[in-house]
Give the backbone structure.
Amino acid sequence: MSRASDALDAVHDRHESGPRLVLGIDPGPTTSGVALYDAHRRRLVWSCSDAQTTEVEAQLAERGGIHRGATGDLIRPDLVAIERVQSYGIAGGSLLRTSEEVGDLRRCCLCSGLDYVLMYRREVLRVLDVSGRGNRDTLVRERLGEMHGGSVRAAKGRKASPGPLYGIAGHAWQALAVAVAALESTR
């Protein structure tokens, strides 16, 4: 059994019906995609495609949660799902810095008592059943759209009639993918 599944089992045991709020993070060396997902309602609560990585770390470590948008509401997730980097050969400076940020995010979760899981990109793709040729980011968006309304357009909706993934953009898609994959791994 993997460490990821052990961590998810422990979270599931503490929350009778599984974790409700999952914070997905697609870390980068300076900015990260962040998505807060409500598992029971199967909808996006909040997302940011270019959050400052150091600010995300500070909020998790100092406050044990994350402030959502301009409202300033502090939300404490039941689980933090962080995408882990993996090198396929020679690693450049950006990959190494991202790896350091993953470690910092993990430490922040430990310090604040938040449950967390680290998932490699290939694990996320496998759990979401994303395969085939083409741009993986595009395939992930399409898969999440299928899971939440049949298509990306239906899942996002419009301002007048928002869908379950209304407002998501950029790197927040990958953060949402990590959150949803972490949840799907517990089922």
Summary: Residues 159 and 184 are 29 Å apart (CA to CA). Confidence is low (pLDDT under 50) at residues 1-5.
